[in-house]
Amino acid sequence: VRLVESGGNMVQSGGSLRLSCATSGFVFNNYDMIWGRQAPGKDPEWVSGIYNNGARTYYRDSIKGRFTISGDNVKKTLDLQMNSLKPEDTAVYYCNARNLAVGYWGQGTQVTVSS
Predict the structure, then answer these.
(1) pLDDT tens string 5-54
(2) Band of the pLDDT at 115, cuts 50, 70, 90?
(3) The three-state (H, E, C) secondary structure of 63-83, written as one string
(4) Distance (Å, rounded) from C-alpha 22 to C-alpha 47?
(5) What is the mean pLDDT of residues 64-91?
(6) Which residues, listed in sequence order, are joined to residue 57 by a DSSP beta bridge?
(7) Tally of CB atoms within 10 A around 30
(8) C-alpha 89, offset from chain centre
(9) Angle at CA 70, nearest 5°, toward 9 and 18?
(10) What region does 88 belong to: left with phi over 0, alpha with psi -120 to 50, or beta?
(11) What pLDDT shows up at residue 54?
């Protein structure tokens, strides 16, 4: 099983980034796919998820209207389009695949937003 995040970078406040998670080794559409993040010195937090084979998407309140999650069952990728970035979005962003039995994590990609 592999989950490899990419797309992290340093941007100025108000900028945009698109994160991508390339996956392999499991049946992509049998898993809920989630983006999480961990800021320096803080606990990890859930950011957004796509559930029931794409039927439902959810976002944490602080990123609603700015981030968009999307999944591609053919390419087996999970993306996160991030617009209007704020310094408080600075974190390592992780891709997570989970079902009732197991969860897999990638190694993360760093997003840094300067003011």
Answers:
(1) 999 999 999 999 999 999 999 999 999 999 999 999 999 999 999 998 88
(2) very high
(3) HCCCEEEEEECCCCEEEEEEC
(4) 18
(5) 97
(6) 50
(7) 9
(8) 12
(9) 15
(10) alpha
(11) 82
